[in-house]
Amino acid sequence: MKSKKIIASILASMILISGCSAKTDIQSEPAVTSSSETTIEPIKFDETSETTAEKAKFEFNPHVYSAQLGKSVSKEKWDALYNLCDALRAGETTFKCESEEAFKWAMDDTVLCCLFPAAGLKIDTKMEDGSPAFENGTGKIHYKMDIQEYLKRQADFEVLILDMINSSVEKDDTDYEKALKLYLYVAENFTYEHEVEEVDNYVYKTFTRKKGQCINYAAVYAYLLLQVGVDALPAGTFDGLCHAWTYVVINGKGYHIDTTWALRSEYPGIESVYLDYFMMSDAERDADNCLVKGLTVDILPGYWVSNQDVSYKAEDNHYNLRSLCRFVKLDEENKILHYIDMEDKPHEFHYDI
């Protein structure tokens, strides 16, 4: 992966040759490349004889789980969160939890925004009667909006999530295929928000408005992956280029995936999605000026990965394609990813090897 500055210099040369115009704003996501003469279908997967109606559909999972996060978060905290999620879906005002520490983790705004987005910033622990929010193994829920309105909000959100994942992912996909398809889905259907509006919580608003910034997309992509059973967490850094993306575990190995810099709307004239930011290693991420030595994960107790006894390494380089490669087609039967390089030359990547 070349750094942004190197990519920008390459693009400048291409522009002189092609006569195409481009913008290069490194701070507000990737530089724009020149337009290709080749017309490419943005997303294409091999069709099968099985109709959409016959395919097994995903159901909404209110209990998303990250095994990577589970190494740092105790079972009693997860149980408290799941009890809270069930209570919220039923419009209840209390839920069971084993300790006050578990109660506080489950009710934390960041935890809810990332793991149960519709509830983020819509409930809190301040009881109107001044009573303790947690006592005798029971946590209390104070809704910051009408309960019936919240129930509709939650139900609508669940429908939205199912529409997203069932329109792009199949249950028998491999974890790599799920990650790629959802990467393409976000890149094709969401846009970058250059002027931030303070609307609702930072994950829910991006799902409902389909626009946001890096911190939003780090969590949005992670949540979609968790819904389809792929381990993922929002991550980021304040060293080098201040930026956020998603840390993903596939086949027991960690990778960095950056949907923000893949957003097709940021590349006018380009008809397909760049694959540069899919399945990156630590070395690739560092070369992109996002230094993983200062890695943070929003939902971690203590926030900083360096404070954990758990590894968040991404040392495998096998899946990362070279710079300025764009998606063409996924042949799932033969496990081949078809893509083109910066000169529009076709290539194949056998992703099961």
Task: Describe the 3D structure.
With 353 residues, the protein is an alpha+beta fold. The protein folds into 2 domains: 4-54 and 171-193 and 211-350, no CATH class; 67-154, no CATH class. The chain is built from 10 helices and 14 strands. It has helices spanning 4-18, 67-70, 75-90, 100-107, 109-115, 147-166, 175-189, 204-209, 214-227, 282-287; strands spanning 94-96, 123-124, 134-135, 138-140, 142-143, 191-192, 211-212, 231-237, 243-250, 253-257, 295-297, 326-331, 336-340, 346-350. The protein has a 4-stranded antiparallel sheet. The chain has a 3-stranded antiparallel sheet with strand order 1-4-3. A 3-stranded antiparallel sheet has the order 12-13-14, with no helix packed on it. Helix 8 (204-209) links the parallel strand 6 (191-192) and strand 7. Helix 3 packs across helix 4 (100-107) and helix 7 (175-189) crosses helix 9. The chain is globular. The chain starts with a helix and ends with a strand.
Could you give the topology of this structure?
Layout: H1 4-18, H2 67-70, H3 75-90, E1 94-96, H4 100-107, H5 109-115, E2 123-124, E3 134-135, E4 138-140, E5 142-143, H6 147-166, H7 175-189, E6 191-192, H8 204-209, E7 211-212, H9 214-227, E8 231-237, E9 243-250, E10 253-257, H10 282-287, E11 295-297, E12 326-331, E13 336-340, E14 346-350
Helix pairs in contact: 3-4, 7-9
Oligomeric state of the chains in view: single chain
Number of domains: 2
How many strands appear in the DSSP assignment?
A: 14
Helix content: 25-40%
**What is the N-to-C succession of helices and strands?**
HHHEHHEEEEHHEHEHEEEHEEEE
Mean pLDDT figure: 85
Please outline the major beta sheet. 4 strands, antiparallel
